[in-house]
Each structure stands twice: as structure tokens, then as C-alpha cells.
Amino acid sequence: MIDHFKKCLCGIILTVLFILVVLQTFLTNHTVEENGRENIIVWWTPFVGNIEYSRTCGTTRCLFTENRHLIDHSKLKAILFYGSNFNHTDLPVPRSAHHLWALFHEESPKNVPLLMYDITLSFFNVTATFSQNSDYPLTLQYLEDYKTLISRKYVHTVEQKNHYQQDELLAPVLYMQSICDTMSGRDQYINELMQYINIDSYGKCLNNKELPESLSGRDYLSTIDTDELYKFISRYKFIISYENSVCNDYMTEKLWRTLAVGSVPVYFGAPNIKHWLPNNKSAILVDDFKTPKELAEFLLNLNENDIEYNTYLQHKRLDQQPAIKNRVLLDHLAARPYQPKTLIPDFECFICSNHIEKRVTKGYECGETLIYPQMEEKRVTELDWQSYVKQGKCEAETLEYFLSKNLPYSETEFTRAMIQRYEQGLCEM
Questions:
Q1: Which of 121, 150, 288, 324 is deepest in the core (most CB within 10 A)?
Q2: Three-state secondary structure of the chain
Q3: Overall pTM > 0.90
Q4: Nearest CA-CA partner of 100 in 124, 75, 66
Q5: What are the residues whose beta carbons fall under 8 Å from the beta carbon of 155, sequence distance 6 or more?
Q6: Given the DSSP bridges, would you call strands 264-268 and 284-285 parallel, antiparallel or unpaired?
Q7: How far apart are CA 207 and CA 261, in angstroms?
């Protein structure tokens, strides 16, 4: 009797499992059949969750989904990866010959260091990154348009800024960061700079002054692009615009926001920054000074010279035409295939509507050795970050080993292979 019951129970369980498999197949096929003429684009690691929608891009219609069951469908066009969620032990391998991989990564390699190496990027047919070498360059993603640079909406005159310093006791320089451990040694440099010039530091890093309650009581990201914040920071003559990583073309809102409000950026980041600035004299570059003390002395002198200070704000001088003389910047803004406010949908349509060939893409230009500005004091985090970067290179080389074999692998197997490479002297720490 008990054996009979067990047999019946097993039979029921198997039947239910079979029905679930059939139902999954039906739902998958039904979705595709409803959109039978559509190409399919799968977000393997989505930018956001719960992706399932169709969109017409030009004359082509595509289904965008995170349904991984569709990657072997005959209508599959591409598999997309959002770089910040990229997991090197969770990839669709073995990879079919017709599978096209596309990477979207608007951030620096700080959060995923293996993506800074060409050997990793070579496995993608299309890259959308901050680098102008990308197939879909996001280099100016944080700059809405050239009108943002010439607008005087937030501009205070130098006389008004002098008033804020004298009567409201504002420092000449503003610093506002809440990510305090960076590959570029940001806090260490600013901490030394503070010894020679007054800096109002908001946020969590080197904090010595509090934001107004209306700006501090909310999530940082909810205030990063608001009129209230722009009006608040525009009262300062100088704003430190110091990137968390040093790569060609990696420029964030730290730079463009400062230029937009009519303050002068004190900039460290992209080595080719002069290629992108509105005019030859649009920012004060940390690299031009041997020490933080030398930079501070320059800022203090410029703070006292109103005529010279205004020469850094030529892009706000509407009486001078053109206000922006950098044709490279203007041409890139005009030619980019997206608008910052519709960045993801525009990228999706680029993949949907373009013929994509299988090819090797170009990578970042970050370099394997970390770059810091010159300082008098010893930088305490340099070795930690250098080890982090070297580990990223070892991960990239190990990933190449597995992907070249085109066989599935587990996280345990990947870790074991990395340890073996260390033991054989093929990886550094």
C-alpha cells in the first residue's frame, strides 16, 4: 500500500514537472510568436530588472528581454551586458558562432577592473563606453548639449563671488564627494591641498561643512542634477573636479557641472582633457603643478585677481563669438548617436537597427599603472589599488583561457585556475 502510494506520488511529481516545462516552452514560444517578425535582443546582465518590451528602431522592430531561454532562438540578434553587473563566472558559454556580444559600461573600470584590458574587451563585438575608441562612444554622456556650457542661468559675477567669500565666509574652493577611496588618490591629494588653502568640503569625504538640510536630507543621486544644487555650488569661484580613475576620455559630471554653473574646475582625471575643454583656458589642471602647495598658491593669487579669473570663463562670455572655440567638442556633440536623457533606449536602437559584424573592438586607454598627481606626503592606498588592478589583469587572462576553449565553467573552476596561474608566476599580486 505504501509502495503504491509512493509510486503514485512520484508519478504526480513527474507529471507536474513535465507540465511546468511544457508551460515554460509555450510561454517562451508564445512571446516570440506574438512578435514573430522581431529580432530578439537579450540583456544577459540588465541595466535594470524586469526587461520585456518591444521597440521599433527605424524600420526594424526588436524585442528586448532578460529571458535567457531565448539566446538560442533563430531570431536572436545580440546579447547585451551591462558592465557594472558583469560577472565573469556567469556568461552564456559555450558561445555559438552567430552570437554577438555587446557591452554597455558608462562607468570607469574602478568597479570591474578586468574590463580595462583589451583581452577582455576583445570578446565583445560592440562596446559602448566612455572611450572615444568605442563603437558607440559615451564620452560626453554627462554633457547635455553645448547650450549647457554657454548658459548664464546659474552664473554669478566675480564681484558677487567675492561678496560670498567676505560676507558669508565661503571658502574660495568647494569639494563635494561621498566616495572616499579611489584609484586616483583623490582624498589624499585634497587633504594635503587643504593645508594651504581654505576648502569647504561637503559630503562624507574630508567633511568640514554641512549642506543645507534641503540638500542633505535626501539621497545623493536625487540631488546631483537639480537647480537647487546648481545654485548652491555656483557661488564658489573654484570647484574641485577630481575623477576616481585616470583614463583617456573619462570625464564625468564633476567637470561638466562645474563648467555649467560658471565656476572654474580644478581638474584631475583624463590625461587628454585638453582635447575636450571648451577653450584653451577653461580649467585649472592639477597636473600642471608640482605639489598641492604650488597649486594652492596659484589659486590664492587667482582668487585675488578678478580680471585674470574671468579669462577662465570665456564660454560664458556671450559677447564673444564663438564662446566655444573647440571644434572637436562641438563636432562630437553634434555627431553622437544618443541624447543623455535617453541613453539606454538609444543604445538599444543602435544595436537593433544596425548591421553588426563579428569583429575585435578597441579598448580603454587607462594603462596598467595607476597615475597620481605629485604630492609631498606619502600616499597610503597606492599599493592596495595597484594589487586590485593586477588582480583584474589576472582575472582577464583567466577569462581568456576559458572563453578561448568555449566550454562552460564554474566559479570554483575559475578560482582554481587563477590560483594556479599565481603559483606558476603567470599572475602578479
A1: 121
A2: CHHHHHHHHHHHHHHHHHHHHHHHHHHHHHHHHHCCCCEEEEEEECCCCCCEEEEEECCEEEEEECCHHHCCCCCEEEEEEEHHHCCCCCCCCCCCCCCCEEEEECCCCCCCHHHHCHHHHCCCCEEEECCCCCCCCCCCCCCCCHHHHHCCCCCCCHHHHHHHHHHCCCCCEEEECCCCCCCCCHHHHHHHHCCCCCEEEECCCCCCCCCCHHHHCCCHHHHCCCHHHHHHHCCCCEEEEECCCCCCCCCCHHHHHHHHHCCEEEEECCCCHHHCCCCCCCCEEHHHCCCHHHHHHHHHHHHCCHHHHHHHHHHHCCCCCCCCCCHHHHHHHHHCCCCHHHHHHHHHHHHHHCCCCCCCCCCCCCCCCCCCCCCCCCCCCHHHHHHHHHHHHHHHHHHHHHHHHCCCCCHHHHHHHHHHHHHCCCCCC
A3: no
A4: 124
A5: 234, 261, 262, 313, 316
A6: parallel
A7: 22
Reference 357, options 126, 36, 188, 195; nearest CA is 126
Residue 49 near residue 13 (C-beta atoms within 8 A): no
Cα dist from 107 to 85, 104, 123, 250, whole Å = 11, 9, 19, 8
215/224 Cα distance (integer angstroms): 9
Work out the end-to-end distance of the chain between its first and last CA atoms, rounded to an integer number of angstroms: 64
Contact 40, 68 (CB under 8 A): no
Contact 276, 270 (CB under 8 A): yes
- What type of residue sits at position 261? V
Q: Cell 538599444 identifies what position?
A: 348
Q: Which of 147, 146, 139 is nearest to 252 (CA)?
A: 139
Residues 6+ apart with CB under 8 A from 369: 386
Instruction: Let me know if 278 is exposed, middle or buried by CB neighbors in 10 A (0-12, 13-18, 19+).
Output: buried
CA nearest neighbour of 103 among 301, 403, 409, 364? 364
Q: Over the chain (429 residues), what is each successive 10-residue block's mean pLDDT? A: 46 43 42 63 89 93 96 95 94 92 90 88 92 92 95 96 96 92 87 96 90 73 80 97 92 96 96 96 96 97 97 89 93 94 95 79 71 72 75 93 94 95 85
Task: Using the structure block, give the residue that is written with the C-alpha cell 533563430.
Answer: 74
Question: Please, is 176 exposed, middle or buried when counting C-beta atoms within 10 Å of its C-beta (0-12, 13-18, 19+)?
Answer: buried
Other Cβ atoms closer than 10 A to 342: 11
Ramachandran category for residue 101: left, alpha or beta (phi over 0 → left; psi -120 to 50 → alpha): beta
